[in-house]
Design goal:
The chain has 450 residues and is an alpha/beta fold. The protein is built from 14 helices and 20 strands. The longest helix has 20 residues. The radius of gyration is 23 Å and the shape is globular. The termini are far apart. Bound molecules: nicotinamide-adenine-dinucleotide.
């Protein structure tokens, strides 16, 4: 079986990749299990050196990986270079973990008590199509550093960079079977990760619907699971802030990666006294966005990933009160213009649901309390931003919003060295940051009697 890949830019076929069967998945998992013992026993300093070598090889191939992502996923070339660089950075960051995976010595009577962080075994990483490279790296870098072996399933639509990263791992000297990329269907390869007894943990990133199924499936073997799911994050703009600056920053926070971003600030809450000024300036910023061929250096937004995704986003636009749009190329490819909707009720689908496309909904609020209530009126809780000149208010609202990643006077929410993950139905567990390797270990306690 193969999967046909379509260019989001032209709608033309760009290639075929094999789609693994359940038997092929089982074979790969068994090989990963065979590779686990030797990989776990690699001396910490040597495992660290191999991860740094892997990072260097990824860096040497930054442009090639970036160009692959432009072709396969329609990401802008600037973003795609950052994404390949993010894999390198994650590998370098977690290459410091093997020699630092400390246990504790806990005071007890009659002996010595020590703890160990032991690797789990084979870890299954399931990746969505929106950020194929970073999300793969957020999983495999800390998992490998902690001594696990990894089987990784890229999304059906966007397997090319993951396949290439698997080849580069081998080129860097990572032993065969330690990182295996298995392209294929979620219902075949992904489900087999969940049901295979040798896979000891699932790190899943994707939709909340599939995440719930995976969590239920993992329960059967009490399999460890982390979930990074959907979002509907709020960008809260208070009237005391620099409205021009907040309006200029808002489009990128909503439309980066064509809005196909779990952290997209797809709801903008604006204090009523500044609402008209903000919306006017937002229109200037959105109409100035360069939506074009993602391979061009100056492009700010490319197409959507697939025809199906464009249709799904269009359905939200059709029912909404569109205030204005930016531009988009005519002709082939899965294009939509950046679109701003004015919402009058929190019941609107476009206000409540994760659209996962270049659509942002704006709504006024009166005071701080209402802003927090509106922001929290969501089943999701992944990220969010607060724009205000009052630092006390910024801190109060950041603490009041039920989400895992908040930024005050900024939209930055992802750094490989800070923890990332969701409240409520946006997820379970955290990725990245200094503790990520621990999420791929069991803590063992050993008591030795004097
Ligand atoms: P999706 O849930 O359809 O698919 C994600 C992955 O799961 C794919 O590899 C798919 O093949 C696989 N899969 C599908 N069904 C499966 C099953 N039954 N068992 C095992 N695996 C299965 O999601 P998508 O459409 O690829 O990605 C978009 C979603 O991902 C959005 O909801 C977005 O918010 C979310 N996302 C979340 C984060 C985060 O960190 N919180 C980051 C990126 C994307």
């Amino acid at each position: 079986m193969t999967t046909t890949l379509i260019s989001p830019v032209t709608g033309e076929t760009i290639g075929e990749v094999p789609s693994a069967s359940q038997t092929e998945t089982d074979t790969a998992v068994e090989r990963a299990q065979e590779a686990f013992g030797p990989w776990r026993d690699v001396a910490p300093g040597e495992r660290a050196r191999l991860l740094r070598r892997f990072a260097a090889v990824v860096d040497d191939h930054n442009e090639e990986l970036a160009q692959l992502e432009v072709r396969n996923a329609g990401h802008t070339i600037g973003n795609a270079r950052w994404e390949a660089g993010n894999v390198r950075d994650c590998l370098n960051y977690y290459s410091a973990a093997p020699e630092r995976l400390f246990g504790r010595q806990i005071p007890v009577a009659g002996g010595v008590d020590i703890t160990f962080h032991e690797p789990l075994g084979v870890v299954g990483i399931i990746v969505p199509w929106n950020f194929p490279m970073p999300i793969a790296g957020w999983g495999f870098a800390p998992a490998l550093a902690a001594g696990n072996t990894v089987v990784l399933k890229p999304a059906e639509l966007t397997p090319l960079t993951a396949i290439r990263l698997g080849e580069l791992a081998l080129e860097a000297g990572i032993p065969e079977g330690v990182l295996t990329v298995i392209p294929g269907k979620g219902s075949v390869v992904g489900e087999r990760f969940v049901t295979h007894p040798l896979v000891r943990k699932i790190a899943f990133t994707g939709s909340t619907t599939v995440g719930k199924q995976i969590m239920a499936g993992c329960a059967d073997q009490v399999k460890k699971v982390t979930l990074e799911l959907g979002g509907k994050s709020a960008n809260i703009v208070f009237a005391d802030t620099d409205i021009a600056a907040a309006a200029a920053a808002a489009p990128n926070a909503a439309f980066d990666n064509s809005g196909q971003d779990c952290c997209a600030r797809s709801r903008i809450l604006v204090q009523r006294t500044a609402y008209d000024e903000f919306v006017g300036r937002l229109e200037e910023a959105v109409t100035a966005m360069r939506v074009a061929d993602p391979g061009q250096e100056s492009t700010e937004m490319g197409p959507l990933v697939s025809e199906g995704q464009r249709a799904s986003v269009q359905a939200y636009i059709d029912g909404a009160n569109v205030a204005f749009t930016g531009s988009a190329p005519d002709g082939p490819g899965w294009w939509l213009p950046p679109t701003v909707v004015e919402s009058t009720s929190t019941d609107e689908k476009v206000w409540r649901e994760e659209v996962f496309g270049p659509v942002v909904a704006v709504m006024p609020f009166d005071d701080e309390e209402e802003a927090v209530t509106l922001a929290n009126d969501s089943e999701y809780g992944l990220s969010g931003s607060i724009f205000t000149n009052d630092l006390g208010r910024g801190m109060r609202v950041a603490r009041g919003v039920e989400a895992g990643n908040l930024s005050v006077n900024s939209h930055a929410s992802v750094r490989y060295w800070t923890p990332f993950g969701g409240y409520k139905q946006s997820g379970l567990g955290r990725e990245l940051g200094p503790d990520a390797p621990h999420a791929f270990t069991e803590e063992k306690n050993v008591f030795i009697a004097h």
